[in-house]
DNA sequence: GTTGCAATTGATAATGAGAATCATTATAGT
DNA sequence: ACTATAATGATTCTCATTATCAATTGCAAC
């Protein structure tokens, strides 16, 4: 099976940390690569069946996080959801449906992103806070729920 | 002891839900009113000592949430933090220190807030999502940590 | 392609934030 | 004050996540 570009990038990063890219980890990366938003360990486990045991999913996500391959999201109650880090996917934001709870990725166009960054910078200047990142979450009703 | 304006608003809202504003709950509301950012049950408990038992703090925060008196925040790992709902405090955003983890309220001026709302509306239109709220979180180094 | 060995696995136990229980107590309206 | 009902708080329960550890696997050197 041919190695995808995503896998190649992840493998390189992991090698720098002396972390092995095993079969189960490859499977996880593929699943995260296909996802349309951040996924919890339970989400991934139900998608992958017993291909990768839940305890291994938790451990691998944690290893990936330490290596900067995935980013955790805490924006919903009781569960942590993970997605590929932005150096792999590009910077983006999230829509959260207040009705059904789905979290969906959105990329916004450069004009809006530039405006947003200007707002963030100005706020940082105003209050002596040094921004390194920002997250705009929009809560509302998704297409299915409106 | 004279009843503060905040307490009066909360009492009215609770009465509409047939929820009593007891001594412990009054104490909690006061603590939340003084806070400079969202606080966890444990935060509140350590601030209030055994004045209000931890299990009561959890239950009261949950009751307050149902009545729309407080809002939960999930943006940090492993704990839920609560703050007074925006109809009591005014709309605002949050700074999260990537170093020490402190979460701090910020009100941004009307010009920036208007720009932000315009961005949110435009995104909603683009992707057929109906926004009801938004949250801009700025991650960076707080004054103490830079 | 075998070998050596550190990294990984996966079943299971431990942890910890938060929710549920329930007998007792406090609250508010009459 | 009396009563009906809501709240309390010590305790137990739940469930997402982490830690453990003996068995297995990946990888690089030979
Ligand atoms: Mn995302
Ligand atoms: Mn706040
Ligand atoms: Zn929805
Ligand atoms: Zn800080």
* Total number of strands of chain A: 6
> What is the CA-atom radius of gyration of chain A, in angstroms?
17 Å
CATH topology of the largest domain in chain A: Arc Repressor Mutant, subunit A
CATH class of the largest domain in chain A: Mainly Alpha
Number of domains in the coordinates of chain A?
2
Strand arrangement, largest sheet of chain A?
1-3-2
Name the pair of protein chains with the most residues at their interface, and give those residue counts: A-B, 38 and 38 residues
Multimeric organization: homodimer
Output the number of helix runs of chain A. Answer: 6
Name of the CATH superfamily of the largest domain in chain A:
Winged helix-like DNA-binding domain superfamily/Winged helix DNA-binding domain
Q: Which ranges of chain A are low-confidence, i.e. pLDDT below 50, for 5 or more consecutive residues?
A: none
User: At CATH's second level, what is the architecture of the largest domain in chain A?
Assistant: Orthogonal Bundle
Largest sheet of chain A: 3 strands, antiparallel
Give helix % range of chain A.
40-55%
How many angstroms does the end-to-end distance of chain A come to? 42 Å
- Mean pLDDT score of chain A: 94
Could you give the topology of this structure?
The structure is a homodimer of 146-residue chains.
Chain A: H1 5-16, H2 23-34, E1 39-40, H3 41-48, H4 54-66, E2 70-73, E3 81-84, H5 86-89, E4 93-97, E5 103-106, H6 110-127, E6 130-141
Parallel strand pairs in A: 4-6
Antiparallel strand pairs in A: 1-3, 2-3, 4-5
The structure holds manganese (II) ion (MN) (2 copies) and zinc ion (ZN) (2 copies).
Chain A binds a DNA duplex (30 and 30 nucleotides) through α2 and α4.
């Amino acid at each position: 099976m041919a190695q995808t570009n995503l896998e190649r990038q992840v493998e390189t990063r992991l090698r720098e940390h002396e972390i092995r890219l095993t079969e189960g980890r490859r499977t996880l990366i593929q699943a995260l690569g296909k996802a349309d938003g951040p996924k919890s360990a339970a989400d991934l486990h139900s998608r992958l069946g017993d291909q990768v045991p839940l305890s291994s999913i938790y451990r691998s996500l944690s290893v990936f996080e330490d290596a900067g391959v995935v980013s955790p999201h805490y924006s919903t109650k009781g569960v942590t959801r993970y997605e590929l880090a932005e150096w792999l996917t590009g910077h983006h934001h999230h829509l959260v449906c207040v009705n059904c709870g789905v979290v969906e990725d959105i990329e916004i166009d450069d004009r809006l992103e530039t405006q947003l960054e200007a707002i963030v910078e100005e706020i940082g200047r105003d209050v002596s806070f040094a921004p390194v990142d920002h997250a705009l979450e929009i809560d509302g009703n998704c297409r299915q729920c409106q």
